[in-house]
């Protein structure tokens, strides 16, 4: 197994095992909106629906499993994006010896 594969495996395990323990408290912006009393102004019809709303994979009734799945999915998406970017930059950047 190559080094990047081991790193990806560790990242996926961390995403699966630690995501269910993430804080359920509102994030910074939502918390400020609650504290300052303008949270309701941000509510309304969404222009774009989130594929993983509230960090839960849709269609899974168990919240811990849905959260772990969202952690794994997020890790995989970020890995794929960075892998693609690295491959793209590797093709365009001059190689030095």
Helix-strand makeup class: mainly alpha
For the biggest sheet, the summary is: none
Low-confidence stretches: none
Series of H and E elements: HHHH
The global form is extended
What is the distance, rounded to the nearest whole angstrom, between the alpha carbons of the first and last residues?
26 Å
Radius of gyration: 18 Å
**Percent helix range:** 55-70%
Instruction: Kindly report the average pLDDT value.
Output: 88
Number of strands: 0
Strand content: under 5%
- Count of DSSP-assigned helices: 4
Provide key terms for this protein.
mainly alpha
Secondary structure elements and pairings:
Layout: H1 3-18, H2 28-36, H3 39-42, H4 63-92
Brief rundown of the structure:
The chain contains 4 helices and no strands.
Question: Please, could you describe this protein's structure?
Answer:
- This protein is mainly α and 97 residues long.
- 61% of the residues lie in helices and 0% in strands.
